[in-house]
Structures are given as C-alpha cells and as structure tokens.
C-alpha cells in the first residue's frame, strides 16, 4: 500500500494526544458528584461503566484515525470484478492446424476449446474473432451474440502461412478503430503521400502516448498459434504496439515444441516447430501470460484458466472512499452508544 497524499499522515502524530486529553477531562477537579441511594447501586454503576464509559471515545478515536488515512488517499492491490469489456480471440488457421498430434486435430481441439470459453465467459463481455494464416482478417466483429461467434468458429477455412504479427495488428484495429492503424502500411512499408477516395472515411493515423504495459483494462487479446511467423508484420513489432496501448496479450502455444517438423496427411511437409521464445516474449512485453497446450485437455484447461483470470483482476485502486465510509460508521456508532448509555454525545 502507498499514499497519493502522504503529507496528511503527519496529522496522525496528534492522535496520541487525544487519549491524554480524554483522561484529563475524566480526572479534572470540580466534577459534580452523583448521589446514590444505596451501596448496591454504586457497585452496579461502577461495574457497568468500567468499559461502557470508554467505548464511545475509543470508537471516535478510531474514526478520526481512519479519516486521516483516507485524506492521505491510500492505494492498495485488491481483487476486483472484471473491468474489461472486450476480448479478441486471435486464432491460427494455418494448414499445420490439421495435424493430429492434438486429438482429434489441432484445429478441432482449438475450435471446441474456444466455444467452451465463450460459454463460460460473462454475458456482458463482448468478444471479437480474428483469424490468421498467410494474412489476417476479422472473422467477426466484437459482439455479445454468442451463437454468431460459434458459427464463425465452425466456419474456419485453413490457408498457408502464419502471420502472427498481422493478427495482433488486426486485433488492435478492432479494439482501436479511431487510431488509424494501417495493416498494409505496416506489412509492405507503403507510405502514401495522399489519401485515396477509398480511405476518405477512415481516420488518419494517430501518434499515441505509450502507457504502461497491461494498464488498459477495457480489452485483452488471447492469441493462439501452433507455429512461427512466416509472413506479415514482425511479431515483436506488433507486440510493442499492443504494449504501448496497455493491451495484455495472453498467448497459447499449441502442439509440438521440439522437432524439425512433421508431414501433412497429403505428404506435403509443413514446418511445425513452435516458436515458443517469441510467443513468450509477446506475453512478457504486454503483461500477459504464456501457456503451452500439448493436448486437447490442456488446451481446454488453459482457456478455462484465462477465463477466470480476466473475470477477476488484482489491481491497484484507491480505497479512500472505503476508509471514509468505515470511519463514518465508527463515528456514528460512538454517538449512538453515548446517547443510549449516557444521554449525551461523546
């Protein structure tokens, strides 16, 4: 925990003086005596007031301490309900996803796990779908319509190539349509001097001020790949774009980590070795998590774990209001008890 206005904590030095003032008031000379008709009433009064007499004052002291802490604006890491509104599922649909080392095939296992993820995700969370092979495209815009997303997942068409970086860029375009991110310019290095009529309705490219990685709470990207980039935008360059916008990328590496490759059912060799170091770096750069899934059961478990991660986040948040509320409650309790027991306010 730390404080945004720590100068108010100096006032805490006054608090030890208050009990001393309170004791002086209790023992000050000239207090009016209370007359009792018999000794039993004196004993009853003494035993009853031994702790009741001081409890309201103690509650009031705690209330003052809490208000001073609240004035210092404390920040604490607390678990909060999910604040995100959009998740982008970026899924590899390259030909290597037809391999059967993850039963029944990598593609079928990825499709089934993604659908279970949608089923368990809170209904108020929008989900978008990006697919990538030799190029990347938005298979479905962000929506709350789960059946439409399931239909899009069932309709995947596999292609050659693996454009991991382009998938990240396409996800960012979906999340930040007003940033003017140009995938073609990033892919081919095109820097047109003017804007064509087709681009007239598109926002111009914007220079952004980088923020802390993982600090953007309105969205997250879950990237699944079974290979390494063969085309498109550089993967780490795209990850840097996400990190500068504070977007976390949780990465799932699917299939084989070791080995030079495998063969497709048709006998066409496809390079299958997972580029795990790069995928781990994508997760690290953006404040996300990396998971390897070598089986269908492991893949479902990863999606389940990520679903629970994004629903509750441990974040630094200001707890001033909570402390002020508790302190007010203590002060009210002190006043009520004093009125009930002694017919006076503390």
In short:
With 346 residues, this protein is of the alpha/beta class. The chain contains 11 helices and 11 strands.
How many strands, what sense, and barrel or not for the largest sheet? 6 strands, mixed
Number of strands: 11
| CA distance, first residue to last residue | 32 Å
Strand order of the biggest β-sheet: 5-4-3-6-7-10
Strand content is 15-25%
Description of the molecule:
The protein has 346 residues and is α/β, with parallel strands linked by helices. It has 2 domains: 2-29 and 44-78 and 318-342, no CATH class; 84-185 and 206-294, 3-Layer(aba) Sandwich (Rossmann fold), CATH 3.40.50.410. It has 11 helices and 11 strands. The protein has helices at 17-27, 39-52, 55-71, 106-120, 146-154, 164-175, 183-188, 235-244, 276-286, 296-311, 320-342, and strands at 2-3, 74-81, 86-92, 126-132, 136-143, 219-225, 248-254, 262-263, 269-270, 290-293, 312-318. Strands 5-4-3-6-7-10 form a 6-stranded mixed β-sheet, with helices on both faces. Helix 4 runs antiparallel to helix 5 and helix 6 packs parallel to helix 8. The two termini are 32 Å apart.
